[in-house]
Amino acid sequence: MKTTISKVSNFVGQEVTIGAWLANKRSSGKIAFLQLRDGTGFIQGVVVKEEVEEDVFAKARAITQETSLWVTGTVREDDRSPFGYELAVKNIEVIHESVDYPITPKEHGVEFLMDHRHLWLRSKRQHAIMKIRNEIIRSTYQFFNDNGFVKVDPPILTGTSAEGGSELFHTKYFDDDAYLSQSGQLYLEAAAMALGRVFSFGPTFRAEKSKTKRHLIEFWMIEPEAAFVEHDESLEIQEQYVSFIVQSVLKNCKLELNTLGRDLSKLENIKAPFPRITYDEAIEILKKKGINDIEWGEDFGAPHEVAIAEEFDKPVFITHYPAKIKAFYMKPDPKRPEVVLCADLIAPEGYGEIIGGSQRIDDLELMQKRYEEHHLTGGSYEWYLDLRKYGSVPHSGFGLGLERTVAWITGAEHVRETIPFPRLLNRLYP
């Protein structure tokens, strides 16, 4: 019976054949222990000299790391294994021998591992991170589909910037100028006016010359947008969504979390509602902690976000930022126009902002004023202004950075481990 490692629990006591690679091995006299992987998981294969043909045991002793194999054996339960099962090997067939595999069980430097990212992905740690990333994506689709959101795919090539500023990748679009998308938000607002509640999931690009452990040049964003939803309701959707994906990972990826040594109790605590503080209150927290390098009206940096998050054991919303440091489309607070109806969601444990969102301006006259203030009077943005001309409604949206969220949930130290092939300031290979 041919099967995969992830399905061996269905075949306890039965003989199965698995296509696998040799991740590692060790021998103890007349027994060889093979650490096998097949992409779905890892399992130990035990080869006992007295129980197999002589040539099978010789193969078990001789096979090299990352050699591909057909392995046949009997599945048995094993309480000592984190996986819970092992394979009593009866036969080994070599598919392709791997010679001088460069990533050995010894310690390697980060740059070496990044140069060999195409192979580093095979390791147990990277496998666990990618499986958790996949679960976050799967549960994202489940959450938004279950809550009436329609998947919409905004363009990657755009004629305008969503956020403004110079952190754009420019390219030629035949005889015109184009940019790689910073965000699909503007297009999602248009889609929300047609479909009510929408979300996108796709790559975004920031030409930001940053080398921090929280920044990538190319990263993936989940961006929901909803008509007839105002600021407070948007925060409720955000905390329900984040709670849902964390609990889904706990339920479906416990083995991977244990492989990473993640403190499960910290994730088990991530359930809505989340605490909310205003920008003003955040400034007060920093001052009380003796952090005086920031004044009202300045944006928070990573050290400020970490210091604020230390006061909470759940993600915390920081709301009502000064309008002058936020994007042109954010709706001012009617009670206090110098701040906007927005929020950043700061993850605990030092992982910083994972969501940015706001209620959008729905008033035509105010949006026209914002256009003038931000010099957006050219034709490129006329279509966006149309959304306020024809049946404008209150609406809100947000964007969650997938890689930062994966880093937080997995406990990874750097976002470069949270995407299969990271694009960094100094890295475009492999």
From TrEMBL:
Give the protein family. Answer: Belongs to the class-II aminoacyl-tRNA synthetase family.
Keywords associated with the record:
Aminoacyl-tRNA synthetase, ATP-binding, Cytoplasm, Ligase, Nucleotide-binding, Protein biosynthesis
Q: What is this protein called?
A: Asparagine--tRNA ligase
GO CC term, one of those recorded: cytoplasm
Q: Does the keyword Transcription apply?
A: no
Q: How does it assemble?
A: Homodimer.
At the top level, the lineage of the source is: Bacteria
One GO BP annotation is:
asparaginyl-tRNA aminoacylation
* Compartment annotation: Cytoplasm
Record EC number: 6.1.1.22
Organism name: Schinkia azotoformans LMG 9581
The gene is: asnC
Q: Which HAMAP family match?
A: Asn_tRNA_synth
Question: What catalytic activity is recorded?
Answer: tRNA(Asn) + L-asparagine + ATP = L-asparaginyl-tRNA(Asn) + AMP + diphosphate + H(+)
List, alphabetically, the InterPro entries matched: Aa-tRNA-synt_II (IPR004364), aa-tRNA-synth_II (IPR006195), aa-tRNA-synth_II/BPL/LPL (IPR045864), Asn-tRNA-ligase (IPR004522), Asp/Asn-tRNA-synth_IIb (IPR002312), NA-bd_OB-fold (IPR012340), NA-bd_OB_tRNA (IPR004365)
